[in-house]
Amino acid sequence: MDTAFIIETMIKIVVLLTIFSALAGLGTYFERKVLAFMQRRLGPMHVGPFGLLQVAADGIKLFTKEDIIPQNVVKPIFKIAPVITAATAFIAAAAIPFWPEFTVFGYTVHPIVADINIGILFILGVMAVGLYGPLLGGMASANKFSLISAARSAAVFISYEVISGLSLLAPLMLVGSLSLIDINNYQSGGIGNWIIWTQPVAFILFWIAAFAETGRTPFHLIANDHEIIDGFGTEYSGMRWGLFFIGEYANMFFISFVIAIVFLGGFGDGTIAGAIQLLLKVSFFFFFFLWTRAAWPDVRPDQLMWLCWKVLMPIAVLNVVVTGVVILVQGGL
Amino acid sequence: MHVEPLQDRNVSELSAYYYVDIPDYPETGWDKFKQVMKRTFKGELFVGLWVVLREMIKFDIHTVKYPLEKLPIGPRYRAVHKLLRLWESGFERCIGCGLCEKICISDCIRMDTRIDENSRKEVTEYSINLGRCIFCGYCAEVCPELAIVHGERYENGSEQRAHFVIKDDMLTPLDWLTSGQQQEYPGFGAITPNESVKSTPLAY
Fold first, then answer.
1. Closest Cβ–Cβ partner in A37, A296, A311 for B56
2. Residue A295 is nearest to which of B36, B48, B62, comparing CB atoms?
3. pLDDT at residue B204 is higher than 60
4. Which residues of chain B does A41 touch, with a Cβ-Cβ cutoff of 8 Å?
5. Is any Cβ of chain B less than 8 angstroms from the Cβ of A46?
6. Is the pLDDT confidence value at B203 over 80?
7. Among A46, A134, B7, B102, which is disulfide-ready with A232 (CB 3.0 to 4.6 Å)?
């Protein structure tokens, strides 16, 4: 392993962390603005032009707030739980290609931290570990609302993981590789080659599972404000709570990238136009997360489990079987 | 719609009340399946999405940016009290009858009077304890001279509530009166300030 590779990887990691930490902050701004406009309000207006510096104000508040560890909590687990959520969100990003490769001063840069050949499996696995944050934080908090939230996060966890895994299986059978770059190159021929046309069911299923994965509104039952205060975040304050927040919003961005790359062609043939298209697709999926929050009600935990186990999982299995048969028939001909 | 059909609370053809049509819960598995399919493909979720997106595009924002914009308040709004002056002479309208002190249900008005050198009754002290005042408006209603009225000053930010209720604060300043800034409140016995308002001679 040569030094240049190590330096390049370190730079990539720093850039990725910086950009997506800032984007997570900006994500809260966009969420508040979009929700406000949809509810005929103005949203943050007073800090900076159009309230843009509200993000900075919130950040300063979170950083300088006292770090309260309540009595009776399991201290080591309570302290580590937010770190799990934030860290796993960013670790998962290591296998996501954010931009096609480009050349700077004759040096080809691959804007992906690690192009591992099991990319999508790594992403799903690490994002799944992220659910340990709410689970452990909720169980360690010595608070009944946090405990309910932890139980719900376990229920959500075992429900959606099956769907996201099975729904991705069918596209992966088509592509024949787990690397996101291979998946992207499989669709590089243009809009007609996108996997969404051959796997629309898998696309819908994975999209639904993404809502459960990030805990966004139809499946926001882990931290439902009107039922269980802030769920696992009830006892947290200051930057520990902020880490949960950064993890949640970074996860929203990363899962949007995954959907856009796996089903909607990613950055296409690797030109700048394709890269900008990728960003537009990601923006749409991020906007959709906010959009549904303004429009849709939340489901109960038992409804989520009913939906995942009794409806979506059979559909996902059927989709895999049908895809396998079609591949077999086409290969045989 | 008239009130009469609503007063009969029994559901009948004559009354305005009717039973909401709630279909029976599905019993068999096939019926449940049909209900799920109907709800899934009816597209109700997209109706919700369209409604919020339409509001976002219309951008019909209803926010009032409060310290910069203020909603108009009604003319009968009951905020911090004011003591008014006579237009023609600049004397205080209050004749010290003490009706407001008497009627105040939270017992927060206190006044002291004396007979001054013109043999008029002069109010030396007049204070309202705004910590007790419930802004019921009885004092303004009972006042025979339209002397104590409710103003429109509802932003009462101060170090002490008492700062609003000294007599000098409530009384219209003389230069306001001469520049015509004293507001009158429409209602029984209200006067319209014009040139027909003349000073009452003290002695005939």
1. A37
2. B48
3. no
4. 61-63
5. no
6. no
7. A134
Provide the 10 A C-beta neighbour count for residue B141: 14
Total H helices, total E strands in chain A = 14, 2
CATH entry 2.60.40.1570 includes domain B81-178: no
CA distance A287 to A221: 20
Widest Cα–Cα separation across chain A: 69
Percent of chain B with pLDDT over 90: 5
pLDDT in tens, B177-192: 777 777 777 655 667 7
Interval B110-129 mean pLDDT: 85
- Considering only CB atoms, A42 lies closest to which of B49, B53, B63, namely B63
pTM of the model: 0.79
| DSSP at A194 | -
When CB atoms are compared, the residue of B36, B56, B63 closest to A38 is: B56
Question: What is the Cα–Cα distance from A283 to A214, expressed in whole angstroms?
Answer: 16
**Residue B16 reports pLDDT greater than 80:** no
pLDDT at position A120 is 86
Using a 10 angstrom Cβ sphere, with 0-12 exposed, 13-18 middle and 19 or more buried, the burial of residue A129 is middle
Quote the tokens at residue A147.
């405990």
Within 8 A of A295 by CB-CB distance, chain B residues are 45, 48-49, 51-52
Chain A CB within 8 Å of residue B38 CB: no
Quote the mean pLDDT of chain A.
Answer: 86
Per residue in A225-255, pLDDT (tens digit) is 888 888 888 888 888 888 888 888 888 888 9
CA distance B119 to chain A (A): 58
Using a CB–CB cutoff of 8 Å, tell me whether B144 touches chain A: no
Tell me which chain A residue has its CA closest to the CA of residue B45: A296
Chain B residues in contact with A40 by the CB 8 A cut-off are 55, 60-63
Mean pLDDT across A199-216? 88
Residue A246: Cβ within 10 Å count: 25
Tell me if B62 and A40 make a contact (CB, 8 A cut-off).
Answer: yes
Q: Enumerate residues 150 to 189 of chain B having a beta carbon within 8 A of any beta carbon in chain A.
A: none
- pLDDT range class, residue A317, cuts 50, 70, 90: very high
What is the location of CATH 3.30.70.3270 in chain B? 81-178
Element (H, E) at B146: none
Number of H helices, E strands in chain B: 7, 4
Q: pLDDT of A272-302, one tens digit each?
A: 787 888 889 889 999 999 999 888 888 888 8
Tokens of B74: 């009604």
**B149, β-bridge pairs:** B82
